[in-house]
User: What shape does this take?
Amino acid sequence: MKSNKEYKQCVKCVMDTTDPDITFNNFNVCNYCIEAEANIVHFKFTKEEEKQNIEKLKIDILRDQKGKYDCVVGLSGGVDSSYVAYLAKEMGLNPLCVHFDNGWNSELAVSNIKKIVDKCGFDLETYVIDWPEFKDLQRSFFKAGVVDIEMLSDHAIMATMFSLRKKHNIKYILSGSNYVTEHGMPLSWLWRKQDLTNIKGIQKKFGTKKIKNFPTMNSVQYQISRLFGLGGVYIELLNNINYSKEGAMKVLEKEFGWQYYGGKHYESVFTKFYQAYYLPEKFGFDKRKVHLSAQIRNEEISKEDALIELEKPFYSGIELKNDLEYVLKKLSFTNEEFEKIMKDEPKSHLDYPSDEWIFKLWRKGRAILKK
Ligand SMILES: [Zn+2]
Assistant: This one.
């Protein structure tokens, strides 16, 4: 939400008061930098430690192999997931690669994925979403005026991975989630991906279709399966090595002829539009600040370089007009309808039904258990 507070930017990174919850210490260092300083050391390894980490994981994964595949890798074609596939190859694993096609993939993403699985000799299963249903859900989220429209894809990917893992009797899911390039996302810039009640509530209010084929998983199912390990074991592989986005991209380009998209998560036309138009225009949120700040804290770039990057427009020249036209046409919004959506006051996910109480209860329970 656009804040009326006085504008202030962190002295170390490029996060600022466009995040309504940001706080600063007496030296004008933001809460994200302070938190990261304490945590990032846990993701820095010597060459020897890196080797040991990978070797240990490899032993665990191979020991528990029951069927043809030893693990599942979700492949979006972006840097992080592509690098996980590369590491899986290096480790001598045989993953089932899963690609989630929500109807918005860029051709470049599809070509990058093909290059990787072809060269590695991995099997690829592409899950194609029921487009009319998904389109209706995306339209509902726009009409609801909430911040996290991407939670629809993230939720469906999570549910799909869980069910595929079960179907093929695979214990491990190798995930591209990682601390060094992803930490420091303001909570108000997104919503909890597991909140199925929220998805259903918004769809009930604004949608025209019943949820039938959209892959789902409810919050209780999610928490219980995590608690008892029923949902398989998630391995955040990149948290076990000295991961850097720049380094990973170099390897991917060299090994696979992989090509960069020009922005984090821009492998999807929708995600680019969402991050480069919807979020900044409606909410005043610029996710590049989060990604660049994470890179500053990981000593990949300087603050000066990040500021130069932020000066660049989200879209160059005619690109925005083209993407806007494409997105509106694909989602069957008229210009007037969409203008109204962009102008309407932003809404909170909590303005709609939510599982928030389950998460609160869960956190309380865990805190008590810890004591
Ligand atoms: Zn900072």
In short: The mean pLDDT is 92.
